[in-house]
């Protein structure tokens, strides 16, 4: 039997590997997997969906059976995937258009559903994850300047990024960058102690 599973809690490529490995242990083959979704093949005489759910829960995942919740999870996956690939690809100018096109639903319907299930708007969800990506870029890609980060994440300006960053984190970009510099001590400093 081939079945499409919608899975909550998959947030990175390592999750896909864990899912694949754990399902193989119970003789379920993941034919394809991506964040939030897997196409699996198994013999229904040997394995039932309850056993698959148990394996998923044991690894921090959850099988989503409600169609609306599946759509919400697909929205989250589209957003997380686009933001995580923002170093390689340009973020869409209008996430609303991308989401509606990808899922084949009216955006206002998807937006209401998302807010109902997540208690946060899609726009706020995007902002929160873009700010997390900014923090990641500042910490691990310290060769990037703010103008380059603005371009990667499709902000209109450095001041727009700074304003959103402060609203979400409660501290300014300048203070955050200063904080990161204090965390990183040069090797000479460490040897002197």
Protein traits:
193 residues, alpha+beta, Arc Repressor Mutant, subunit A, 2 domains, four-stranded antiparallel beta sheet, 11% strand, globular
Radius of gyration: 20 Å
Q: How much of the sequence is in beta strands?
A: 5-15%
Output the helix-strand order: EHEEHEHHHHHHHH
By DSSP (H or I, 4+ residues per run), the number of helices equals 10
Low-confidence stretches: 189-193
Name the average pLDDT.
89
Provide the spatial order of strands within the biggest beta sheet: 2-3-1-4
What is the CATH top level name of the largest domain? Mainly Alpha
In short:
This protein has 193 residues and is α+β, with helices and mostly antiparallel strands. It has ten helices and four strands, in the order βαββαβαααααααα. The protein starts with a strand and ends with a helix.
Task: Give an overview in words.
The protein is an alpha+beta fold and 193 residues long. The chain folds into two domains: 2-65, Alpha-Beta Plaits (2-Layer Sandwich); 68-182, Homeodomain-like (Arc Repressor Mutant, subunit A). The protein has ten helices and four strands. It has a four-stranded antiparallel beta sheet with strand order 2-3-1-4, sandwiched between helices.
What order do the helices and strands come in, and which of them pair?
Layout: E1 2-8, H1 13-25, E2 29-34, E3 37-41, H2 49-58, E4 62-64, H3 67-84, H4 95-103, H5 107-118, H6 122-140, H7 146-152, H8 158-169, H9 173-183, H10 187-192
Antiparallel strand pairs: 1-3, 1-4, 2-3
Helix pairs in contact: 3-5, 3-6, 6-8
